[in-house]
Write a structure and sequence with these properties.
The chain is an alpha/beta fold. The protein contains 19 helices and eight strands. It has an eight-stranded mixed beta barrel, surrounded by five helices. Strand 3 (53-56), helix 3 and strand 4 (75-79) form a beta-alpha-beta unit. Helix 8 (214-222) packs antiparallel against helix 10 (248-255). The radius of gyration is 23 Å and the shape is elongated. The protein starts with a strand and ends in a 15-residue tail after the last helix.
């Protein structure tokens, strides 16, 4: 199979709901278009998870109808700010929209661009907040409203870096938001773990102790009905492959301590009260990263520790607590703690690889995975596999939790 890489980054609506994904590609080494390869392999549909996928589209790709191989309703084509606007471009936009496809203008800034003549033909406008910040958001918003009026396209604030900028973008009543703030929201004051999280973290320490037998672990779990329910749902999931497991003791006997530790770590992440799409996406990202790292096992790198390092590396964002505070509550190995706190030791490169890949730094991530003795061509496979596994193992757990208003979960520290 041709080598290609892709990564997704979430977009959230005004209510905090997940509304779509940016999907970034690196074309295959043989020159084949990564979008085509990902669509034909099924990876594109897996990664977009039935939501609109925003994908960059050049003038040549637009005129060649390069994205019409897929269901056009699946992909929103993001045209660059620098695209030359002429009758051919307008005609190609209209062809795509006639097939129910979406079109977005990307990278708009304080400085007006000729591409803004296309407002009436597009569905989305994306403002780059890195250049001009809140001033750029206000200026482009005003230009869109003045030009398009009531029929204006929906507006996305891109590259939201912190809570202050997010609040200013919300005040403008923009339609969607994307950026690093949603992966690292600011801590909430006086955050405490749910009781089931405390129980799960205590169990993680016990499960690592060979002197503690399975019956003792089962007794501890049975004392916490919420944790027991979560774990039974997880071990009966398609990703684990143990349908019909009716007790934690039965699961322990069938799969052993390493898998049990993995389930506990997933239960820890899932115990975060997921009140918004942002919260749920953070939990998914944490578990996906754990699963992605787990596939890098070999040599000094043990699969169970890799999973914990990957997942715990995002728990500070999930729980709005410092990572050092979290690690005080659970007995991870010295090597895992070194990787998480100091980026040293045998697991540091694996964590750096995942972080680079998730940012779309494909060349750097390829160098890191090669240093670990693994084939860089498998990076995209590991990423897609992690998304699939997490969707099967965790989707029903998160989707069963009630939704609530978005604002409290994203509040900044006052």
């Amino acid at each position: 199979m041709s080598e290609f890489c892709l990564v997704r980054q979430p977009l959230f609506g005004a209510s905090g709901a997940l509304v779509g994904y940016d999907i970034r590609f690196r074309d295959a080494a043989d020159g084949q278009h990564a979008f085509v390869q990902s669509y034909l392999s099924g990876t594109f549909d897996l990664v977009r998870a039935k939501l609109p996928a925003f994908v960059s589209c050049s003038r040549a790709q637009l005129l060649d109808d390069a994205f019409q191989i897929a269901d056009p309703s699946a992909a929103v084509l993001v045209l660059p700010r620098s695209i030359d606007v002429d009758a051919q471009v307008v005609s190609a936009i209209m062809r795509y929209r006639e097939q129910k496809g979406g079109i977005a203008l990307g990278g708009l800034t304080l400085e007006p661009a000729p591409v803004e003549a296309l407002y009436e033909y597009v569905d989305w406008v994306r403002i780059d907040a890195r250049s001009g910040g809140a001033e750029a958001l206000r200026a482009v918003h005003a230009r869109v409203v003045a030009t398009a009026g009531a029929k204006r396209p929906r507006i996305v604030a891109d590259h939201i870096a912190d809570a202050s900028l997010y609040e200013q973008a919300r005040a403008l009543k923009l339609d969607a938001f994307q950026g690093e703030f949603f992966s690292r929201p600011e801590p909430l004051p006086a955050t405490e773990f749910p009781q089931s999280t405390v129980s799960a973290m205590r169990l993680m320490g016990l499960a690592r102790d060979p002197k503690v037998n399975d019956r003792q672990l089962e007794d501890v779990i049975s004392a916490d009905p919420v944790l027991m329910f979560q774990l039974l749902r997880l071990v009966n999931s398609a990703a684990v492959g143990l349908r019909g497991v009716s007790s934690i003791g039965q699961a322990l006997r069938m799969v052993g301590r390493n898998a049990f530790l993995r389930w506990l770590s997933v239960a820890v992440a899932a115990s975060r009260k997921s009140s918004t799409g942002v919260d749920k996406e953070l939990v998914r990202q944490a578990v996906e990263r754990g699963r992605m790292l787990e596939q890098l096992a070999g040599g000094e790198r043990e699969a169970g520790t890799l999973f914990l390092v990957g997942m715990f590396s995002l728990l500070d964002a999930v729980f709005r607590m410092s990572l050092s505070d979290i690690l005080q509550r659970v007995a991870l190995s010295e090597e895992a703690s070194e990787a998480l706190l100091d980026r040293t030791g045998p697991y540091a490169n694996a964590l750096a690889f995942a972080e680079s890949y998730e940012l779309g730094l494909f060349e750097h991530s390829a160098e890191l995975i090669a240093e670990m003795g693994l084939d860089p061509a498998r990076a995209g496979e590991f990423y897609a596999s992690a998304i699939e596994w997490t969707g099967e193992a965790l989707g029903s757990v998160l989707d069963s939790q009630p939704a609530a208003a978005a604002r409290p979960a994203l509040a900044s520290r006052r």
